[in-house]
Design a protein that fits this description.
Elements (H helix, E strand, L loop, with lengths): L3 H15 L6 H17 L4 H15 L2 H4 L4 H16 L15 E6 L6 H14 L4 E5 L7 H12 L2 E3 L7 H15 L3 E5 L8 H13 L4 E7 L4 H13 L4 E5 L8 H10 L3 E5 L7 E3 L2 H8 L5 H11 L2 H12 L5 H13 L3 H6 L5 H4 L8 H12 L3 H5 L6 H11 L3 H20 L20
Helix pairs in contact: 1-2, 1-5, 2-3, 3-5, 5-12, 6-7, 8-9, 10-11, 15-18, 18-20, 20-21
Length: 448
C-alpha cells in the first residue's frame, strides 16, 4: 500500500505528541527529528527533508502552538499543511485546448509503465467526452506497438501506427495529420524509452518536439525507484522540458519518497498517479488528499468518487438493509468483495477511511485477488442455507465444505473468521451505514 511504511512511522510520532498536555521546545525538536528520519527512510531527497523540517519547526515553536490547549494537534496540523505545500498545494489539471487538437508527448525510461499509462490516460480523456488518438512511436522495444494496440482496443481508443520501419518523428507527424483529417481532438504520442537516459533518446524527443506542435510533455516515472525517479525527472526537465509528471506504481511503493520530492526538486507538478495494474487505475493527483492519506487521516473524497464510478446504488441499499436486519450472509460477502475489488481492494478502501487503518490488520488479505478464486470456491461449496445462516457452520459442515472446495479446513475457518470480522467492522463504522452511498450533508455511506 502506498506510503504504508512512512504513514505508520509518522502516526507513532504523532501518537506521542497527542498524549502530552503541554509541549516544550525540546519535545517538538525530538518529534521532528523522528519525522526527519522517517522521511529519509522513505527515500525523500535530503535537501527536501531539510527544508521541510526547518519550515515545520519555525511554525511549531511559536507562542500560538506552545500556549494552545491542544499543542500536539497544532503540530500535526502544521505538518499536514507543509506536506500539502511540498507536493504542490493546488491540484494541477491537464491543460487541453478548448478548440483544435491537443498533442501530448509521453516520455520516460523503459519499465516505468509509459505505454500502459498512455492507454489509461486515453481512456480517462474518452470518458470526459474527448476523442483521443494513441500514436505508437516506440519502434524499438519488442511488442511495444502490439501492447499499445491491445490496450487501446480495451479502452475503445484508436491506435495510429506505421510499423517498426519508420522514424518516430514521421509517425508523430502522420498521427497529427490523421487526427486533423478524422476529427480527433487529442493525440497521445507513446515515445520510446531506454534503460537509462542517453543522447539518442533525447535527440529523438527533441526532433519530435521541433516537427509536431506539442502542447504538453508528460514524464512517466516509476514511484518504486524512489530517489532515482527524481533524478530522471531532473534530467528530462534539463534536456527536453516537462510540463507535468505521472507517477506510476504508487500502490506498490510503501515509502513514497518520489511523490514527496518531485515537485520540490523540479518545480513540475504531479498530474496523475497510477494506483494499480487495471486500465482504470489512474487517479488525479490531489496534494491535500495525499497528505491526509500519509498522516492516516483518510481520503473520503476519493472514496466517494470511486463509489460513484464503481458501485451499483440499488445493490448498496439492499446490502445495507440486510446488514441492519442481521441478514448479511456469505452471498452478500462475495458480492461485497467484488464491489471492493472494483474500487481497488479492501486495503485501498480502508486506507481512505479516517481512523480505520488499525482495523485493517488481519483482514486486508480477505480480498487478495489471488485468493479470490479459492474464497469463491469455499463459499460456493456451502449450501444456500449455510450461506444465508453462517451461524449453523459447525465442524462437520466445515469439513464437508473444505472437501468440496479442495482446501484445508484451516482455510474455511480463516474465511469464517474474516467474514465475522468484516461484518462486525461494517456495523461499527460511525456514520457510514445508511440507505445509500450518501447521508445527510453528503456523508459517505459504506459502498456495498
Amino acid at each position: 500500500m502506498a506510503f504504508e511504511s512512512l504513514s505508520d512511522k509518522l502516526q507513532n510520532v504523532f501518537k506521542n505528541l497527542r498524549g502530552k498536555g503541554r509541549l516544550s521546545e525540546a519535545d517538538v525538536k525530538a518529534s521532528l527529528k523522528e519525522v526527519k528520519m522517517a522521511l529519509l527512510e522513505a527515500d525523500v531527497s535530503f535537501k527536501v527533508v531539510k527544508q521541510f523540517i526547518k519550515a515545520v519547526e519555525e511554525r511549531a515553536i511559536g507562542a500560538d502552538v506552545m500556549n494552545s490547549l491542544t499543542p500536539g494537534q497544532q503540530v500535526i496540523k502544521i505538518v499536514h499543511e507543509e506536506l500539502i505545500r511540498l507536493m504542490g498545494s493546488e491540484t494541477t489539471e491537464l491543460k487541453l485546448n478548448s478548440s483544435g487538437i491537443t498533442v501530448l508527448m509521453m516520455m520516460g525510461l523503459q519499465g516505468a509503465g509509459k505505454t500502459t499509462t498512455a492507454a489509461k490516460l486515453a481512456g480517462k480523456l474518452k470518458a470526459k467526452g474527448k476523442r483521443p488518438l494513441l500514436a505508437a512511436c516506440d519502434v524499438y522495444r519488442p511488442a511495444a506497438i502490439k501492447q499499445l494496440q491491445v490496450n487501446g482496443e480495451k479502452q475503445g481508443v484508436e491506435v495510429f501506427t506505421m510499423g517498426e520501419n519508420q522514424k518516430p518523428v514521421n509517425i508523430a507527424r502522420g498521427a497529427y495529420e490523421h487526427a486533423r483529417k478524422n476529427g480527433f481532438n487529442v493525440v497521445i504520442l507513446d515515445t520510446a524509452g531506454r534503460l537509462h537516459i542517453d543522447e539518442d533518446m533525447m535527440k529523438e524527443l527533441q526532433e519530435i518536439r521541433e516537427n509536431v506542435p506539442i502542447d504538453q510533455t508528460l514524464l512517466t516515472v516509476d514511484a518504486m525507484t524512489g530517489q532515482d525517479a527524481v533524478n530522471v525527472a531532473t534530467a528530462f526537465e534539463e534536456k527536453i522540458g516537462i510540463d507535468g509528471v505521472i507517477l506510476t506504481k504508487l500502490d506498490g511503493d510503501t515509502r513514497g519518497g518520489a511523490a514527496l520530492s518531485i515537485k520540490a526538486v523540479t518545480g513540475k507538478p504531479i498530474l496523475f498517479v497510477g494506483m494499480g495494474e487495471k486500465l482504470s487505475d489512474l487517479e488525479q493527483f490531489y496534494p491535500d488528499r495525499m497528505a491526509s492519506r500519509i498522516l492516516g487521516m483518510g481520503d473520503v473524497l476519493t472514496l466517494i468518487e470511486k463509489a460513484q464510478e464503481n458501485v451499483d446504488e440499488e445493490k448498496a441499499k439492499a446490502m445495507t438493509q440486510k446488514l441492519k436486519k442481521a441478514q448479511f450472509g456469505f452471498d452478500d460477502y462475495l458480492e461485497s468483495m467484488n464491489q471492493m475489488k472494483k474500487m481497488g481492494g479492501l486495503s485501498s478502501v480502508l486506507a481512505m477511511l479516517p481512523g480505520l487503518g488499525s482495523q485493517m490488520k488481519g483482514i486486508e488479505d480477505a480480498i487478495d485477488e489471488k485468493k479470490m478464486a479459492r474464497t469463491e470456491a469455499i463459499i460456493l461449496s456451502m449450501t444456500p442455507k449455510e450461506r444465508s445462516n453462517p451461524e449453523i457452520l459447525n465442524p462437520s459442515r466445515k469439513h464437508r465444505i473444505a472437501k468440496g472446495a479442495g482446501v484445508d479446513i484451516a482455510e474455511v475457518n480463516r474465511l469464517v473468521k474474516q467474514f465475522e470480522q468484516m461484518r462486525k467492522m461494517m456495523k461499527q463504522m460511525p456514520g457510514m451505514m445508511g440507505g445509500g452511498k450518501f447521508g445527510k450533508r453528503g456523508r459517505l455511506k459504506f459502498p456495498f
